[in-house]
Amino acid sequence: MAPTADATAGSAEPAGTGAMPVGYTAEQYDAFWGAGYTAADADALAALWNTDVTSAKARAGQALLDGTTVPVSPGDHPEGPVVDEDPLWTAFSGAGYTYDDAVALAELWSTDVTEAKARIGRAVLDGQELPIAPGSSGGSATSSTSASTTAG
Prior knowledge:
Blueprint: H1 26-34, H2 39-49, H3 53-66, H4 87-94, H5 99-109, H6 113-125
Helix pairs in contact: 1-3, 2-3, 4-6, 5-6
């Protein structure tokens, strides 16, 4: 789990990174990028852990600092579009569905969020009506970002 320490309270920042997000320390940053992880690896971890990319990098960096295993090895995912190449993901996000929508439908369908996203994408591509409207389940952030996310 991502640490709860406030990274803005006196921790050193890596050169050129600017202010570190709350919960993401310079040490985690250095551990994550220093191990050879890529932005695509960060996207994969965020999708695996159903979290945002910054939280995934913080969690993975902390795991490396603690000497525990991270479920994605550095460089496992090539740079470039990863998630956006999937037509089901493109349909899911393009229709305006959010992570919270996927959670709501996963509960309704008694499945996991990843499967719900795929089912939503398939339904959109097939022109089927879903039990909830896009963006109607609360928050607006999806659990995975596009490959345009910058390393940082």
